[in-house]
Design brief:
The protein is 39% helix and 23% strand. By secondary structure, it is of the alpha/beta class. Strands 3-4-2-1-7-8-9-10 form an eight-stranded mixed sheet, sandwiched between helices. It has a two-stranded antiparallel sheet with strand order 5-6. Helix 2 (76-86) crosses helix 3 (99-110). The chain starts with a strand and ends in a 5-residue tail after the last strand. 37% of the residues are buried.
Length: 180
């Protein structure tokens, strides 16, 4: 199982903790897990480490917004290559607003690999500039519709997020609470 995410442990947050604990749970069932994230490190193009018997591979990315969000202009192909190298049977993405989700879900759909998507937030992106907000939400809306409809399984980490997916996309989401 390949888990594609924006960031992962030791970065702390709800999504990161959820991915770490879910990976630990899956490997306890004797299944191979690789976490592939984009923007975990600035130190090396690819960093590999093993935690609780699963492997984390981080693809270095350019950063914007004071280092808070990776912009994978040059690293997108490297991220795609890492997915190909792992040759997953299942791809599990987290969060619809991340470039890592776009790349991994496209790989899954184009290679006919089962796709599971876990949504962590509801609502739209916020920008102070209303024109930028409209443009960003139009683009992410198109991608979100495609992603939610393409995934074989959709999960949500809260009842609110589950209801949002149902109301906005007309899709059932299984509730898998955050592990925090």
């Amino acid at each position: 199982i390949l888990i594609a995410t924006h960031r992962t442990y030791p970065v702390l947050g709800g999504l990161e903790s959820h991915v770490f604990k879910a990976s630990s749970s899956i490997t306890a069932q004797h299944k191979e897990v690789e976490i592939l994230n984009l923007g975990f490190t600035r130190a090396a193009p690819i960093q590999t480490r093993v935690n609780n018997s699963f492997k984390t591979v981080a693809v270095k990315s350019g950063f914007i917004l004071d280092g808070a969000y990776p912009l994978p202009i040059l690293s997108a192909l490297q991220y795609y290559a890492q997915i190909s190298k792992f040759r997953p049977d299942i791809i599990h993405t987290h969060g619809r607003y991340f470039i890592s989700t776009l790349i991994a879900s496209a790989y899954a759909v184009f290679n006919r690999i089962p796709l599971v998507h876990t949504e962590h937030i509801e609502g739209d992106l916020y920008f102070k500039n209303s024109l930028l907000a409209k443009l960003a939400n139009l683009i992410t809306g198109i991608f979100s519709n495609w992603l939610i409809r393409s995934a074989q399984e959709v999960t949500a980490v809260s009842e609110t997020t589950k209801q949002h997916i149902s109301q906005r996309y007309g899709r059932y989401a299984r509730l898998v609470p955050n592990f925090i």
